[in-house]
Amino acid sequence: MVLWGCQEEQVSPADEELRAITPEEQELIRSGNQFAMDITREITHQQVGNVFLSPFYINMSLSMALNGAEDATLKQMQKVMQCEVLGRLEINKVYNELNPFLQSLDNDMQFVSAHAIWHHQDVAVRPLFRDMMIAYYDAGVEPVNYFNQKTPEYISDWVEDRTQGKIETQMPDLVHPLAMYMVSATHMKGRWSYPFAKESTAPGTFYQEDDQEIIVPMMFTDQASYLYYQDERKTLVDIPYGNQQYSMTILMPHQEDSLSGLLESLDATSFEHDLSLTDTLNYNLYLPKFSISSQLPLKKTLSKMGMRAAFSNNADFSGIFSDSLNRSMAELIHHAGIEVSEEGTRTVMPRAAAAISESANPLVRINRPFVFFIRENHSGAIMYAGIYQQPQE
């Protein structure tokens, strides 16, 4: 877990020549971006409402477990993760080098991420696996007493501590002494390259897919420069953060289309194609001010995507556990939170809203349900994804 302070004497990485992305990193990013599309789409099948997650860090957690998977369990995980090209050691090395590199590219972007594997204290874990988790992922493989009623609270406190209190969580009871629990927690905050004026935030209309109108705090700027693309189905807006190494890419379907319909047709290739067609605009921009905090049990989602063996009695994680029993993954629980405000993705104190007088300049309104991706532009890596469709949450 690394945080950066902003110091005037520091040289921004954007002012320096960034190192090239290696072929192995490019392959992991390619597979990870497709996984991002797949898991975001599948989660919308499983639940209704606003969602925020980090496909990048979910994939990292799965890569940890990949080190101990064998046979059908391994093959299914590789297929769902879209990572059938790279070997497990290559994946470990890529994450070990790529993750800190991506986190260092902008002093105005702060990332908190933590990963751990929890297992019952009577279960023996192979020392080599434990050492690899520490060496490559800075992740613990922690023994706990599954039968102690305070254990879920202990893990919840771990999540809150690792995310600096940004995510409050409640762990379910641990009921599978022969299985392991994986926990992934992440929180980010960043500053827009062109902040929205706080005094310009005012009530605005957000149109839900059932045509219900909801009044939301709507941010406004007439000073932003962002990427824009529109076709017959959707509007794409790409809003930069900080030194513009990172940006939030918003995809909003048109009124006659649905968000679920847009997600069904979305993949990494079409996403990159749309980005290649964008133009830089300086139009006035309206964007809802919102926050999302998600606690996602991913067993059902990953099983639906094809990763069934890992959660079954036939799971083979013999590379993790020392005994000969078939020990499975009980659950992968992912915690993620984001606040989108005038300064960027972090919480700010509200101020009284001022009336806005619209100019004759062209404008873009993000006022319907949308999907968004937070990505790093040098590598193209999708770090976070979200769905915003229910402002009352």
Report on this model:
The chain has 393 residues and is an alpha+beta fold. It folds into two domains: 22-190 and 292-338, 2-Layer Sandwich (Antithrombin, Chain I, domain 2); 198-288 and 352-388, Alpha-1-antitrypsin, domain 1 (Roll), CATH 2.30.39.10. The protein is built from nine helices and 16 strands. The strands form three sheets. Strands 1-16-15-9-8-7-10 form a seven-stranded antiparallel β-sheet. Strands 3-2-4-13-12 form a five-stranded mixed β-sheet, with helices on both faces. A four-stranded mixed β-sheet has the order 5-6-11-14, with no helix packed on it. A hairpin with a 5-residue loop joins strand 15 and strand 16. Helix 2 (55-66) runs antiparallel to helix 4. The radius of gyration is 21 Å and the shape is globular. Residues 1-15 and 346-360 have low confidence and may be disordered.
Estimated share of beta-strand residues: 25-35%
CATH architecture of the largest domain: 2-Layer Sandwich
Radius of gyration: 21 Å
Strands in their spatial order, largest beta sheet? 1-16-15-9-8-7-10
The CATH topology of the largest domain: Antithrombin, Chain I, domain 2
List the helices and strands and how they pair.
Layout: H1 23-46, E1 51-53, H2 55-66, H3 71-80, H4 88-103, E2 109-120, H5 127-137, E3 140-144, H6 151-162, E4 180-190, E5 202-207, E6 213-221, E7 226-230, E8 234-240, E9 246-253, H7 259-264, H8 268-276, E10 279-281, E11 284-288, E12 290-297, H9 299-304, E13 329-340, E14 363-365, E15 370-376, E16 382-388
Parallel strand pairs: 2-3, 4-13, 11-14
Antiparallel strand pairs: 1-16, 2-4, 5-6, 6-11, 7-8, 7-10, 8-9, 9-15, 12-13, 15-16
